[in-house]
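During the second half of the funding period, the structural biology subgroup turned its attention to how the target accommodates small molecules. The most pressing case was AHM, which had performed well in the primary screen but for which no bound structure existed. We therefore specified the complex as follows and requested a full 3D prediction, including the ligand pose.
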Amino acid sequence: MHIGETITQFIIEEQRRVGGNGDFTALLNDVFTSCKAISGAVNKGDLIGVLGSAESENIQGETQKKLDIISNDMMINANIWGGHLAAMASEEMDDIYEIPGQYPRGKYLLVFDPLDGSSNIDVNISVGTIFSILRCPDGVEKPTAEDFMQPGTEQVCAGYALYGPSTMMVMTTGHGVNAFTLDQNVGEFILTQKDMKIPEDTAEFSINASNQRFWEPPVQRYVAECLAGKDGEARDKNFNMRWVASMVAEVHRILTRGGIFLYPKDNKDPAMAGKLRLMYEANPMSMIVEQAGGVSSTGRERIMEIQPTGLHQRVPVILGSRNEVERVISYHKE
Ligand code: AHM
Ligand code: MG
């Protein structure tokens, strides 16, 4: 029986095409292994006692779930020893994680949100892992947080694992977006969707409407027009709305059937530019969305061109189907 194209075969063939030495391929394989391990823990849930709060906080003052910490450890354990990384950074760690001296150091930096959508863990709704790979700047022996401060355009690879009804891996190395589904029997991700493209138009939007009173006028206007649908002046169609509160699930839906996702700037907490993190969430998802023909912006600028100033920096995120995101951008210009 034919098992289909495994993700290992896919990345090795890509390596042959670009003439790599296998370092990057081996690094990706370690990332996939950690996501398979996280998938197993998420899947077993209460059976192995991993649900619930860990009674600790991350640097952003958010209460950590047990699975946030377990997933973070799994990412570190699978990626620490291979010799491909110089350092890692995670949403769940205050500072960067240097590769300890007993392991060889490599030329890449790994950035991740080990378990995104944490509020959904205990209620058995989809969550995911988001990752991004950068090059460690030339000549840097001992990387610091400063070396991670690269705009999203510098990403070598971005991807996410979605722990939903099936476990999927969706990734890009800058040559389109491909999706793989975990075959539990084979223990491998198998290529199931090639060269995903986000439809340019959509009639589906996603936003946490409980923040409505804090939104800026361009977003107020856009959502009001979607809600008015055909009965309003601006639009000739009616819209549907979805909000999973797991960005991974939201982006995956948009990649599959189109849509627009907004976590915009609001004035709820004037010190915060948005909710989502530039390095762990916004940049990797922006690379995937752009590679699939979509657009990703803060409303005022392309997310991938932002020069990061802090590891845990937050940004407004508006991404998805080209024509809708461009409409929101044009409202910001008016
Ligand atoms: P997390 O990394 O702490 O899980 O937070 C990120 C998540 C996103 O996945 C999701 O889009 C958003 O937070 C949901 O926010 P809200 O709870 O305001 O709906
Ligand atoms: Mg997150």
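Two results from this model are relevant to the next phase. The mean pLDDT is 95. The helical segments are 7-18, 23-44, 66-79, 217-228, 247-257, 278-291, 322-333.
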